[in-house]
Protein backbone atom coordinates (compact mmCIF):
# COMPACT_ATOMS: atom_id res chain seq x y z
CA UNK A 1 0.00 0.00 0.00
CA UNK A 2 1.57 3.23 -1.14
CA UNK A 3 0.14 5.54 1.51
CA UNK A 4 0.43 3.15 4.46
CA UNK A 5 1.89 5.77 6.84
CA UNK A 6 -0.77 8.34 5.92
CA UNK A 7 -3.58 5.83 6.40
CA UNK A 8 -2.13 4.81 9.77
CA UNK A 9 -1.84 8.46 10.77
CA UNK A 10 -5.48 9.19 9.88
CA UNK A 11 -6.75 6.03 11.59
CA UNK A 12 -4.81 6.76 14.77
CA UNK A 13 -6.04 10.34 14.79
CA UNK A 14 -9.63 9.12 14.33
CA UNK A 15 -9.43 6.51 17.11
CA UNK A 16 -10.04 8.98 19.98
CA UNK A 17 -13.12 10.31 18.18
CA UNK A 18 -14.45 6.80 17.55
CA UNK A 19 -13.71 5.73 21.12
CA UNK A 20 -15.54 8.76 22.48
CA UNK A 21 -18.51 8.08 20.19
CA UNK A 22 -18.64 4.52 21.54
CA UNK A 23 -18.75 5.75 25.14
CA UNK A 24 -15.07 5.63 26.15
CA UNK A 25 -14.30 8.48 28.53
CA UNK A 26 -11.33 10.00 26.74
CA UNK A 27 -11.27 12.88 29.20
CA UNK A 28 -10.81 10.49 32.12
CA UNK A 29 -7.99 8.66 30.30
CA UNK A 30 -6.21 11.94 29.56
CA UNK A 31 -6.74 13.12 33.14
CA UNK A 32 -5.31 9.83 34.42
CA UNK A 33 -2.22 10.16 32.19
CA UNK A 34 -1.75 13.78 33.28
CA UNK A 35 -2.13 12.76 36.94
CA UNK A 36 0.81 10.37 36.51
CA UNK A 37 3.01 13.38 35.82
CA UNK A 38 6.44 12.54 34.55
CA UNK A 39 5.81 8.85 35.29
CA UNK A 40 3.60 8.81 32.20
CA UNK A 41 6.84 9.34 30.24
CA UNK A 42 7.66 5.73 31.21
CA UNK A 43 4.87 4.67 28.86
CA UNK A 44 4.80 7.30 26.12
CA UNK A 45 8.55 7.65 25.52
CA UNK A 46 9.17 3.88 25.08
CA UNK A 47 6.10 3.68 22.80
CA UNK A 48 7.55 6.54 20.78
CA UNK A 49 10.96 4.83 20.61
CA UNK A 50 9.44 1.53 19.44
CA UNK A 51 7.47 3.25 16.69
CA UNK A 52 10.54 5.27 15.70
CA UNK A 53 12.55 2.08 15.28
CA UNK A 54 9.80 0.44 13.23
CA UNK A 55 9.03 1.47 9.65
CA UNK A 56 5.78 2.99 10.95
CA UNK A 57 5.56 6.69 11.68
CA UNK A 58 5.81 7.80 15.31
CA UNK A 59 4.01 11.07 14.50
CA UNK A 60 0.68 9.91 16.02
CA UNK A 61 2.43 9.27 19.36
CA UNK A 62 4.07 12.69 19.07
CA UNK A 63 0.64 14.30 18.66
CA UNK A 64 -0.68 12.38 21.67
CA UNK A 65 2.29 13.58 23.73
CA UNK A 66 1.30 17.17 22.96
CA UNK A 67 -2.32 16.37 23.75
CA UNK A 68 -1.45 14.88 27.14
CA UNK A 69 1.47 17.02 28.29
CA UNK A 70 1.00 20.31 26.43
CA UNK A 71 3.53 21.88 24.10
CA UNK A 72 6.61 22.14 26.36
CA UNK A 73 6.57 18.70 28.03
CA UNK A 74 5.13 17.12 24.88
CA UNK A 75 8.11 18.46 22.91
CA UNK A 76 10.48 16.99 25.52
CA UNK A 77 8.74 13.60 25.29
CA UNK A 78 8.85 13.80 21.49
CA UNK A 79 12.52 14.72 21.48
CA UNK A 80 13.42 11.87 23.84
CA UNK A 81 11.34 9.35 21.90
CA UNK A 82 12.59 10.44 18.47
CA UNK A 83 16.25 10.59 19.52
CA UNK A 84 15.98 7.25 21.33
CA UNK A 85 14.41 5.67 18.26
CA UNK A 86 16.96 7.26 15.91
CA UNK A 87 19.91 6.04 18.00
CA UNK A 88 18.50 2.54 18.55
CA UNK A 89 17.51 2.22 14.89
CA UNK A 90 20.91 3.44 13.68
CA UNK A 91 22.77 0.82 15.72
CA UNK A 92 20.34 -2.00 14.94
CA UNK A 93 20.59 -1.31 11.24
CA UNK A 94 24.34 -0.80 11.30
CA UNK A 95 24.90 -4.09 13.12
CA UNK A 96 22.40 -6.22 11.19
CA UNK A 97 22.12 -4.92 7.64
CA UNK A 98 24.27 -6.59 5.05
CA UNK A 99 23.06 -5.14 1.83
CA UNK A 100 19.93 -3.09 1.31
CA UNK A 101 19.00 -1.20 -1.82
CA UNK A 102 18.18 2.43 -1.03
CA UNK A 103 17.66 3.87 -4.54
CA UNK A 104 13.89 3.38 -4.25
CA UNK A 105 13.80 5.44 -1.06
CA UNK A 106 16.20 8.06 -2.40
CA UNK A 107 13.92 8.52 -5.42
CA UNK A 108 11.27 9.91 -3.03
CA UNK A 109 13.59 12.72 -1.93
CA UNK A 110 13.48 16.21 -3.42
CA UNK A 111 15.91 16.47 -6.31
CA UNK A 112 18.08 19.12 -4.64
CA UNK A 113 18.64 16.87 -1.58
CA UNK A 114 19.77 13.96 -3.74
CA UNK A 115 22.74 16.05 -4.85
CA UNK A 116 24.34 15.94 -1.38
CA UNK A 117 26.37 12.99 -0.09
CA UNK A 118 24.61 10.93 2.59
CA UNK A 119 27.19 11.95 5.22
CA UNK A 120 26.59 15.65 4.56
CA UNK A 121 24.89 17.52 7.43
CA UNK A 122 22.63 19.19 4.85
CA UNK A 123 21.43 15.77 3.67
CA UNK A 124 21.02 14.36 7.19
CA UNK A 125 19.08 17.38 8.51
CA UNK A 126 17.16 18.08 5.30
CA UNK A 127 15.89 14.53 4.90
CA UNK A 128 15.04 14.28 8.62
CA UNK A 129 12.66 17.23 8.19
CA UNK A 130 10.55 15.40 5.58
CA UNK A 131 7.32 14.36 7.35
CA UNK A 132 6.48 10.67 7.82
CA UNK A 133 9.39 9.16 5.84
CA UNK A 134 12.41 11.37 6.50
CA UNK A 135 13.44 9.83 9.81
CA UNK A 136 13.41 6.31 8.39
CA UNK A 137 15.38 7.23 5.28
CA UNK A 138 18.06 9.02 7.31
CA UNK A 139 18.26 6.24 9.88
CA UNK A 140 18.81 3.57 7.21
CA UNK A 141 21.06 5.65 4.97
CA UNK A 142 23.29 6.89 7.79
CA UNK A 143 23.76 3.41 9.20
CA UNK A 144 24.36 1.73 5.84
CA UNK A 145 26.70 4.43 4.57
CA UNK A 146 28.60 4.36 7.87
CA UNK A 147 28.01 8.02 8.73
CA UNK A 148 30.01 8.73 11.90
CA UNK A 149 27.73 8.32 14.92
CA UNK A 150 28.48 11.73 16.42
CA UNK A 151 27.54 13.48 13.17
CA UNK A 152 24.38 11.38 12.95
CA UNK A 153 23.52 12.26 16.55
CA UNK A 154 23.88 16.04 16.32
CA UNK A 155 22.17 16.30 12.92
CA UNK A 156 19.24 14.25 14.20
CA UNK A 157 18.94 16.53 17.23
CA UNK A 158 18.81 19.55 14.91
CA UNK A 159 16.25 17.89 12.62
CA UNK A 160 14.10 16.42 15.40
CA UNK A 161 13.73 19.56 17.54
CA UNK A 162 11.44 21.66 15.31
CA UNK A 163 9.28 18.66 14.39
CA UNK A 164 8.99 17.59 18.06
CA UNK A 165 7.84 21.08 19.05
CA UNK A 166 5.44 21.38 16.11
CA UNK A 167 3.73 18.03 16.71
CA UNK A 168 3.45 18.70 20.46
CA UNK A 169 1.89 22.09 19.71
CA UNK A 170 -0.62 20.52 17.30
CA UNK A 171 -1.51 17.86 19.89
CA UNK A 172 -1.89 20.54 22.57
CA UNK A 173 -4.09 22.48 20.16
CA UNK A 174 -6.35 19.46 19.74
CA UNK A 175 -6.58 19.19 23.52
CA UNK A 176 -7.57 22.86 23.71
CA UNK A 177 -10.13 22.52 20.93
CA UNK A 178 -12.02 19.69 22.61
CA UNK A 179 -11.72 21.20 26.07
CA UNK A 180 -9.32 18.74 27.65
UniProtKB/TrEMBL annotation:
Compartments where found: Cell membrane
Protein name: TVP38/TMEM64 family membrane protein
Membrane topology recorded in Swiss-Prot or TrEMBL: Multi-pass membrane protein
Organism in which the protein naturally occurs: Heliomicrobium gestii (Heliobacterium gestii)
Domain VTT: 58-172
Annotated keywords: Cell membrane, Membrane, Transmembrane, Transmembrane helix
InterPro entries given in the database record: TMEM64, VTT_dom
Phylogenetic placement of the source organism: Bacteria, Bacillati, Bacillota, Clostridia, Eubacteriales
GO cellular component, one term: plasma membrane
Family of the protein in this entry: Belongs to the TVP38/TMEM64 family.
Ranges annotated as spanning the membrane: 33-54, 66-93, 118-141, 153-178
